[in-house]
Amino acid sequence: MRLSPPPPPLRLSTRPALAIAGCVAAGIGLGAAAPSVTGWALVGATAAIGALGYVVATRRRLVTLRPLATTLAVVTVAVALGATRQSAWLAVPPAGVEALATAWGEADGVTVWGRVAEPPERLWAVRFAVDLDSVGRGDVRGAASGRVQ
Questions:
Q1: Which of 34, 35, 138, 141 is most deeply packed, by most CB within 10 A?
Q2: Which run of H or E residues covers position 53?
Q3: How many CA atoms lie within 13 A of 116 on its CB side?
Q4: CA angle in degrees (0–180, nearest 5) for 65-68-72
């Protein structure tokens, strides 16, 4: 009885989607370390435009580094895509309670108005979630969105 041959080794050149997924994952890590949506989007756009310009400028040359430039641009765009997505996910919405409380100063605290979203739970204390309508501090009150627990 013949045994089947072993599977071929895992090479990134034969599985490009795996390499791109790794670059996006690295970008997610970088986006968590340095969250800046516009900065990472600018890095990705610059890499794409730079590679396109290089490819157009060297299209009639016999010897170029076109494959290397294209590969580096794709890797950079994939990293920037992951970082932009993570930065956008970490960003505080402008109408969120965190943004309003920070703008007014958290030292005195804020008052929230809303509806109870889930029935209260009794653990060691009573806990419940509130869907926000507005947030206020003193006489100042503003519309807010989000959920507070």
A1: 35
A2: helix 37-57
A3: 7
A4: 135
Residue 72 has pLDDT above 70, yes or no: yes
pLDDT band at 107 (very low <50, low <70, confident <90, very high): low
Task: Return d(Cα 20, Cα 133) in angstroms, integer.
Answer: 42
CB atoms within 10 A of CB 31: 25
Interval 84-102: pLDDT, tens: 999 888 877 666 666 666 6
Contact in structure between 73 and 50 (CB atoms under 8 Å): yes
Closest CA to 90 of 100, 79, 82, 101: 82
Q: What is the DSSP string of 111-139?
A: EEEEEE-S--EESSSEE--EEEEEEEETT
pLDDT in tens, 15-25: 888 889 999 99
| Listed residue (132, 129, 137) closest to 111, CA to CA | 137
